[in-house]
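Regression test case RT-17, inverse folding.

Input:
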């Protein structure tokens, strides 16, 4: 019999933060080594996982983009949800759409100049094709009480309404065994989540709905409360800093090609890089102001740092995540294997 390997963060508690359901990470290469496809692997893992679970399939050779337009290594290509060993046959799985490269899409989504410059030849995945999913609005897989939402970056126990945010880079750290921060989302990240870029088949929005410099939340200071009190698992800040620096050095400008999230803006400030203030709409600036990212703050002159220095000082440069504890992902994302076939 073949063996399927994967990693799981068990339902429970980490440093006082609730993990509302089992969180599973499985790589495409391990699925193929076991002689399975993604759907078969999700069902096999479900059968061996008591309780509710969100199950994410990764292609580490592909790339994706964060909500604010930063291109990064790896991609989620399929997601599932299970409960009591079962996967709902209609709503329990959803595949992400591959975005073919073209000069046209780079013109339409200028942040993708990173693809051409730094990730040439690699497949790009973000969210699902809306024509191929049943649930009309949310990019979500649901089975019983398990909800795996926003293209596998937010999971919830539907009965208890407890949820957890899982930004992509934090998940990749769990896959690769790097360091993560476990904490509460807090006001700054709550605001930053809304600073998206316009993308076809985006992780949250299926159409090019909100451009760089705009806020998808568009709710003033209330944006600080939207996700504030939800636990999260994110990458250590040096990892986020590395990719933001790489995007800016590729020629992307915050609020023009990249979203105006606090993390992107603060890195740009300390790099001495251009920020297109003229494109930050008043509604977005009002949300940034609520967490202290005012234009006066961003325009303060500070000694410019190079990429390595930004990474080394990332914890002080990039704001966000309350009560964070740095943990090596191997301590919480436990290795498992099951016999299949």
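Golden output:
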């Amino acid at each position: 019999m073949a063996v399927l390997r994967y990693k799981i963060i068990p339902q429970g508690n980490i440093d006082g933060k609730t993990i509302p359901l089992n969180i599973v990470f499985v790589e495409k290469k391990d699925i193929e080594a076991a002689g399975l496809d993604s759907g078969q692997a999700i069902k096999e893992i479900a059968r061996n996982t008591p309780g509710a679970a969100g199950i994410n399939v990764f292609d580490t050779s592909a790339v994706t983009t964060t909500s604010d337009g930063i291109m990064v290594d790896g991609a989620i290509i399929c997601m599932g949800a299970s409960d009591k060993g079962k996967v709902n046959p209609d709503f329990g799985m959803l595949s992400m759409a591959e975005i073919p490269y073209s000069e046209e899409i780079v013109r339409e989504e200028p942040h993708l100049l990173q693809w051409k410059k730094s990730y040439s030849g690699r497949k790009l995945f973000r969210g699902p094709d809306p024509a191929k999913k049943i649930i009309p609005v949310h990019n979500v897989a649901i089975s019983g009480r398990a909800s795996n939402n926003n293209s596998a970056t937010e999971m919830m126990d539907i009965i208890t309404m407890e949820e957890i945010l899982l930004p992509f880079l934090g998940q990749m750290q769990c896959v690769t065994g790097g360091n993560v921060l476990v904490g509460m989302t807090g006001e700054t990240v709550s605001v930053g989540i809304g600073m998206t870029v316009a993308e076809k088949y985006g992780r949250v929005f299926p159409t090019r709905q909100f451009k760089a410099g705009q806020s998808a939340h568009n709710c003033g200071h209330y944006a600080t409360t939207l996700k504030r009190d939800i636990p999260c698992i994110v990458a250590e800040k040096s990892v986020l800093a590395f990719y933001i620096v790489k995007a800016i050095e590729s020629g992307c400008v915050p609020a023009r090609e990249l979203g105006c999230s606090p993390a992107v803006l603060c890195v740009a400030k300390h790099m001495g890089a251009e920020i297109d203030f003229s494109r930050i709409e008043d509604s977005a600036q009002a949300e940034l102001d609520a967490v202290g990212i005012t234009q006066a703050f961003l325009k303060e002159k500070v000694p410019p740092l190079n990429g390595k220095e930004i990474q080394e000082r990332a914890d002080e440069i990039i704001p966000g995540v309350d009560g964070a504890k740095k943990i090596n992902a191997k301590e919480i994302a436990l290795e498992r294997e099951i016999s299949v076939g």
